[in-house]
Design goal:
The protein is globular, with a radius of gyration of 20 Å. With 246 residues, the chain is of the alpha+beta class. Helices cover 26% and strands 35% of the residues.
């Protein structure tokens, strides 16, 4: 079992570890460490990239409790290596994922809906809901979410004990067996989640909805958080400026 440093500190950028195995396949060299700060793909959140032992980490996956780093080159088994995650990528993912939690917390509180689809690529984040909402509803939710962000509320992650878990009122689509990792945004959302998150809501910066269309029995909404939201509207402003000048 790989020790998951990213759960101990989501803001850890560098670390040292020992190489336990290194095997080659068609994708690269699959490296397993005794511990890692690299987050593997999961829960809708993409994997971390970065540098490990001086070589590029192209992808990270979890298999049977082990974190597998897909590297460009071989690393010697038994060697102590230093790792550095691509922090801008990780922080962006934390902004988007934490923003999604706040949005879904408010939607669940108002409508009782769940997300039945969540995609976080390199552009907009998409959330599929199992019920209808109007654009006016979303603008109200957007205002509430940004108020919570600017209040800079703390974010807590923990594993309730088997005795505690039944009494934790957390958002979930189905009952989960112990152990369950809980992510709590103070007085805003409590949800089971395996992803990495900000330490306080202020790090999210802002959340902005972009679109809302009918999708199956509910709707699909697009949004951006943090730096992505700022860059989105910088691009819109520049486009409008160029059109106006023309």
């Amino acid at each position: 079992m790989t020790e998951k440093l990213f759960y101990q500190d989501s803001h850890m950028k560098t670390f040292t570890a020992t190489v336990q195995s290194c095997e080659q396949d068609k994708n690269g060299w699959n490296v397993v460490l005794d511990r890692t700060a690299f987050y593997p793909e999961g829960g809708g959140q993409p994997a971390d990239h970065g540098i490990l032992g001086g070589v590029k980490v192209l992808d990270v996956r979890e298999k049977n409790g082990e974190i597998v780093h897909i590297c460009e080159q071989e690393l010697p088994v038994g060697a102590e290596v230093s790792g550095e995650i691509h922090w801008a990528r990780r922080f962006d993912h934390m902004q988007q994922h934490s923003g999604e939690h706040l949005v879904m917390g408010q939607i669940y509180k108002k409508f009782g809906y769940h997300n039945v689809g969540f995609h976080m690529g390199t552009g907009l984040v998409t959330i599929d809901l199992n019920g209808p909402v109007t654009w006016e509803d979303l603008l109200e939710i957007e205002g509430n979410v940004n108020r919570i962000i600017w209040e800079n509320r703390p974010v807590k992650t923990w594993y309730p004990s088997p005795e505690e878990l039944p009494s934790v009122n957390y958002r979930t689509k189905k009952a989960l067996p112990w152990p369950v990792r809980i992510v709590e945004f103070s007085e805003a959302d409590v949800c089971a989640c395996c992803g990495t998150h900000v330490k306080s809501t202020g790090e999210i910066g802002m959340v902005k909805f972009v679109s809302c269309i009918k999708f199956k029995e509910g709707v699909r909404i697009e949004l951006a958080s943090g730096k992505r939201a700022m860059e989105l509207f910088q691009n819109i402003f520049e486009q409008n400026r160029q059109v106006s000048q023309t």
